[in-house]
Amino acid sequence: MLTGSIVFALTYVLITARRLGWVRLDRPSAAVVGAVACVALGVLAPDAALAAIDLRTLVLLFGMMGMGAFLAVDGFFERAVVALGRRARTRGRLLGMIVWGSGIFSALITNDAVCVLGAPLVVELIRKQSLPPLPYLLALATASNTGSAATLVGNPQNMLCATLGGLEYRDYLLHAAPVTIASLALNHAILHLFFRRELRGALVASEGVRVFDAGSALVLFVIVAAAVAYTIGADLAWTAAGGCALLLVLRRELPPEEIWRRIDGPILLFFAGLFVVVEGFVESGAPAWLFSRFELLPDTDLGSFMRLAGFFLVGSNVVSNVPFILVVREPLETISNPESVWTLLALASTFAGNLTLLGSVANIIVAERSRDVGSFGFWEHLRVGFPLALATTALAAGWVWLAM
Q1: Rounded Cα–Cα distance for residues 140 and 95 (Å)
Q2: CA neighbor of 143 nearest in space, from 203, 101, 173
Q3: pLDDT in tens, 238-296
Q4: Pick from 105, 135, 192, 175: nearest CA to 396
Q5: What is the 8-class DSSP label of residue 278?
Q6: What is the pLDDT of residue 20?
Q7: What is the residue-averaged pLDDT of the chain?
Q8: Which residues pair with 90 in a beta bridge?
Q9: Which residue has the higher pLDDT, 396 or 80?
């Protein structure tokens, strides 16, 4: 138990520190070192370490980055930046457009996909308009997490809750959509409160520009078709990879090497290493030992739902949300009202993604893909994410309790 926990803790420290002068490890390097340490120290057997890597997530990220790369090579993002700046007119209105746009699209095409596609756009907006990067980068990351709670296809943990908890798409949507909309409003308000000074002022006026051409329209059509396909049941990862493959065939005028340059390999390495480190921690028995000391929903009063939501919030950040759901699956099978608890787990584990930088894949994607404009670190994220995660999780607990 001890070795796996130590490796996890040290890896977590290295990742949250971003870069220590005497070590000079970035996030992907720290995750890879942690993964190798798990095998070298016997925490996981080599085959078990490889099996811990969630290839579906990596294929999904690869496919979505690939499709986004076609838009980048086409110059779509540069044109969209000009059009969005012209329409928003003020810094505050631009923040709102990012919050609500990324939140709504996350419910349809997953939060990770929105961040993969949206990060280059926001980064370009920051450059073109000379904007303070932090409020807009955090708007993309946090709102994509918040909005993804609305549907069972909004993020990987919700898909897992649907499978393990037997949740129905329509019933979950009816329960989750109202609280998600209210949470997006909270998301917008908290960001505006924290950055009200930075959000004062108008955007630089620009001339009108034609955003879409034939090439970018084709790419967007394939992205939308992929979203429709996996929303109605197609495999998420291979649909995304299939969309990328289809564009490689249809957009033959674009050199493939330009596409590969736009795919962020270090992000894929980071997640591969992190999967191994988290699996080593889970296999150490430490999470199971902690969770066994928490009684899941002993009563049906509001206080019990609040405590349970808090437990889900903390647990999802200790071992990350997807492994956490796997850990609590067995205890949840013994409760008398499973639908409400699985619904609360889906909501709380999603809102938990906003608590810390490492709480969500989406946060890491935005942080890593915005390095050229300053990005954000653990503490910058925590300043906004902590009150946001607490408020939205409490709101979710109260809403599920009322609907029970």
Answers
A1: 9
A2: 101
A3: 888 999 999 999 998 888 888 888 887 888 888 889 889 888 988 888 777 776 776 66
A4: 175
A5: H
A6: 46
A7: 85
A8: 202
A9: 396
Q: Which residue in this structure is represented by tokens 């746009």?
A: 101
User: What single string gives the DSSP state of each residue in 322-387?
Assistant: HHHHHHHHHHHTT-S-HHHHHHHHHHHHHHGGGTSGGG-HHHHHHHHHTGGGT---HHHHHHHHHH
> Which residues have C-beta within 8 Å of that of residue 209, sequence separation ≥ 6?
79, 82, 83
Whole-structure pTM value: 0.78
CA dist., res. 325 & res. 70, Å (int): 35
**Cβ neighbours around 55 below 10 Å, total:** 13
Q: What pLDDT does 19 receive?
A: 44
**Contact (CB, 8 A) for 125 and 94:** yes
| 266, two tokens | 């270090």
Quick check: helix, strand or coil at residue 211?
coil
d(CA 131, CA 187): 20
d(CA 152, CA 164): 12
Helix-then-strand count for the chain, H and E: 20, 0
100 C-beta neighbours (distance < 10 Å), count: 18
Q: Which amino acid is at 380?
A: E
The full set of domain ranges for the chain reads 2-403
Q: Which residue has the tokens 């609360």?
A: 344
Question: CA quadruple 280, 281, 286, 290: dihedral positive or negative?
Answer: negative
Please report which residue ranges of 41-149 form alpha helices under DSSP H.
46-52, 55-74, 76-88, 91-109, 111-129, 133-148
Structural contact between residues 312 and 404, judged by C-beta atoms closer than 8 angstroms: no
Beta bridge partner(s), residue 202: 90
Task: State the residue for tokens 């924290």.
Answer: 194
If DSSP codes are grouped into helix, strand and coil, which group holds residue 90? strand
CB 198 within 8 A of CB 91: yes
